[in-house]
């Protein structure tokens, strides 16, 4: 149903802001804090990367999340190899991973031998600025490899060109040695690195995450072959293969596909709720979409209306759609260094027009598909009208209850507040006792709490209208702000916070069923998490340790003299003072991940559907 491993994600807190304010007052009111020329500091590019890591690779993490820094390092190196393929040099990339050491070999043109050291160690040096050499670059404009070098305990680069080679070895970005000579190796670049423990602390590569990235590279670059050890990744049909891997055969009509010079799209409709998109710019996955994705959605609507000579609403046309879009542009403008959302506005018109033409062409050529799509749109229209009637009743009932959403303790800043609301979080808790502990210790600026009264309804296979007939689930949807569109989500993260017992796990599954059944896009885009709280407290008169597993508890008991052990059965048993640590800067979250969306319904049917002999057998076989 979606599984991740524990990730420690550092977040802002009220305490942190209070400390910063206190520092400001001290600086302003004390003569001891002298502000003069001696306080002005100039960092080298290497020092700046190591000191301000987040500006270059986003989060650090421990390797348990797809967006953790160690995968960004790997991505930057592979991006450069893919850029070579895009420019027609080298059709294979070899990646090897042994423990924490990564090796990447491409067969492109190789870095010019006289510039090898500068290209991997001097900011703003590289050929990515030259359109004659790189027209649609994936890499970080000449910054990426430098960041990898600076953040690696050891970094080795070898460039091979026309029978000659240059090799350089670095330690934490500082050159240790270099050498040159002759070689019989084919042209290309070899990079070997190991992320620095001083920066990343405890970490481990997850092979499944790397495989997912490599498949994306293969889908986006038909004809390119990537190897992870002996495992092979290649695609003949580009985004069509990507979308098929996600939705499988359970589609309303066969996948529509179009590939132009700068635009590649694939789309179909499923019986799932909502809209699901996979969008890319120059090979970079844009998890938060952007201009290209919204233009794709607009082009789909215009193409459908032009073909059928109708004026269908966007909601009816796009309900249940699954689509993929990849574009190549010369000067992409992203909203952050990690490139999650595209901001270019000048590309909208040509994407809309090319998408519209592709949709019209597809529907003209496939009569069965155009009939199936029309039936789907008309069905969506009927269901929407039925739903609107139910919505009206639900809103009237809600007005009678209260003007505010019951059981919601809101925060001040939300996702719509830009940078201020970037880390806003809503905790969905069970019962008043758990929410009580959290309310008194939360960050009121960024942390909201929605309290369930008990176990929510199992909504597997239920229609959207049933959501409006359930007061609690309706209130939760309104609290999240996703009634009309998941893009209107009010919080950066949705965190499920339940007790670590069987009832808590059941509630967790019921909530995941709610999201996967009605709002799967929230899970696909990585918005849903599970809060991990300690199972045990082990302490003596000198020290207190919080343990998240039996193994951690046993280790703490062996290391502390005369320990007292407390087992936390529920969140309500943890005092507000203690709970503040677990939802503060060192909060531990388990991201809910999906391998693909085609397995969602089968998984929900098995675990949350009617009792079957197969499920009973599974439970009996796996009882502890």
Architecture blueprint of SSEs:
Elements: E1 7-8, H1 14-29, H2 45-51, H3 54-57, H4 69-86, E2 92-98, E3 101-106, H5 116-121, H6 144-150, E4 152-161, E5 164-171, E6 174-182, E7 188-195, H7 197-200, H8 207-220, E8 225-228, E9 231-233, H9 239-247, E10 256-259, E11 263-269, E12 276-281, E13 284-285, H10 291-308, H11 314-318, E14 321-327, H12 348-365, H13 367-401, E15 408-409, E16 425-430, H14 431-439, E17 447-452, H15 464-468, H16 471-480, E18 493-497, H17 502-518, H18 520-524, E19 528-531, E20 536-539, E21 544-547, H19 550-559, E22 564-567, H20 576-582, E23 588-591, H21 600-608, H22 613-621
Parallel strand pairs: 2-8, 12-14, 16-17, 16-18, 18-19
Antiparallel strand pairs: 1-23, 2-3, 3-7, 4-5, 4-7, 5-6, 8-9, 10-11, 11-14, 12-13, 15-17, 19-23, 20-21, 20-22
Helix pairs in contact: 4-6, 8-9, 10-12, 14-20, 17-21
């Amino acid at each position: 149903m979606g599984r991740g491993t524990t990730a420690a994600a550092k977040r802002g807190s009220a305490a942190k802001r209070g400390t910063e304010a206190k520092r400001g007052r001290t600086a302003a009111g004390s003569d001891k804090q002298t502000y003069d020329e001696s306080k002005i500091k100039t960092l080298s590019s290497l020092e700046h990367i190591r000191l301000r890591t987040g500006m270059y690779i986003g989060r650090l993490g421990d390797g348990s999340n797809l967006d953790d820094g160690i995968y960004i390092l790997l991505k930057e190196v592979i991006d450069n190899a893919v850029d070579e393929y895009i420019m027609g040099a080298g059709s294979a990339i070899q990646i090897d991973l042994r423990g924490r050491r990564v090796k990447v070999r491409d067969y492109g043109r190789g870095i010019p031998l006289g510039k090898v050291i500068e290209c991997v160690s001097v900011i703003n040096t590289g050929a990515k600025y030259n359109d004659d050499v790189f027209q649609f670059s994936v890499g970080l404009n000449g910054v990426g490899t430098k960041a990898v070098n600076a953040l690696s305990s050891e970094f080795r680069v070898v460039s091979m060109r026309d029978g000659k080679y240059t090799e350089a070895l670095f330690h934490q970005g500082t050159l240790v040695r270099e050498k040159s000579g002759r070689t019989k190796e084919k042209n290309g670049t070899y990079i070997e690195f190991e992320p620095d423990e001083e920066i990343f602390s405890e970490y481990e590569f997850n092979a499944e995450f790397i495989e997912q990235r490599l498949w994306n590279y293969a889908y986006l670059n038909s004809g390119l072959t990537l190897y992870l050890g002996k495992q092979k990744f290649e695609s003949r049909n580009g985004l069509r293969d990507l979308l098929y891997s996600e939705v499988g055969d359970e589609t309303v009509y066969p996948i529509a596909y179009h590939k132009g010079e700068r635009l590649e799209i694939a789309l179909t409709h499923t019986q799932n709720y909502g809209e699901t998109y996979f969008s890319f710019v120059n090979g970079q996955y844009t998890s938060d979409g952007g201009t290209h994705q919204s233009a794709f959605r607009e082009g789909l609507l215009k193409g459908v209306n032009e073909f059928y000579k109708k004026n269908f609403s966007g909601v009816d046309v796009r309900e249940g759609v699954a689509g993929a879009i990849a574009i190549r542009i010369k000067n992409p403008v992203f909203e952050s260094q990690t490139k999650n959302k595209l901001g270019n506005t000048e590309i909208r018109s040509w994407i809309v027009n090319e998408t519209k033409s592709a949709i019209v062409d597809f529907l003209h050529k496939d009569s069965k598909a155009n009939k199936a799509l029309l039936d789907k749109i008309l069905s969506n229209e009927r269901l929407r009208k039925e739903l609107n009637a139910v919505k009206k009743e639900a809103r009237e009932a809600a007005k009678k209850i209260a003007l505010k959403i019951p059981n919601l303790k809101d925060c001040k800043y939300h996702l719509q507040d830009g940078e201020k609301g970037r880390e806003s979080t809503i905790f969905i808790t069970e019962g008043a006792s758990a929410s009580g502990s959290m309310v008194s210790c939360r960050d009121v600026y960024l942390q909201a709490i929605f309290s369930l009264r008990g176990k929510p309804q199992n909504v597997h296979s239920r229609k959207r209208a049933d959501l409006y007939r359930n007061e609690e689930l309706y209130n939760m949807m309104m609290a999240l702000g996703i009634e009309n569109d998941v893009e209107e989500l009010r919080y950066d993260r949705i965190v499920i916070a339940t007790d670590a017992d069987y009832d808590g796990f059941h509630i967790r599954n019921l909530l995941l069923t709610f999201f996967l059944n009605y709002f799967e896009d929230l899970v696909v885009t990585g918005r849903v998490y599970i809060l991990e709280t300690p199972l045990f407290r082990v302490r003596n008169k000198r020290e207190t340790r919080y343990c998240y597993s039996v193994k951690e508890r046993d280790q703490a008991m062996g290391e502390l003299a005369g320990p007292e052990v407390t087992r936390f059965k529920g969140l309500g048993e943890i005092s507000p003072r203690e709970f503040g640590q677990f939802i503060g800067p060192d909060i531990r979250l388990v991201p809910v991940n999906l391998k693909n969306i085609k397995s969602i319904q089968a998984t929900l049917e098995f675990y949350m559907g009617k009792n079957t002999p197969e499920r009973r057998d599974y439970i009996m076989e796996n009882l502890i």
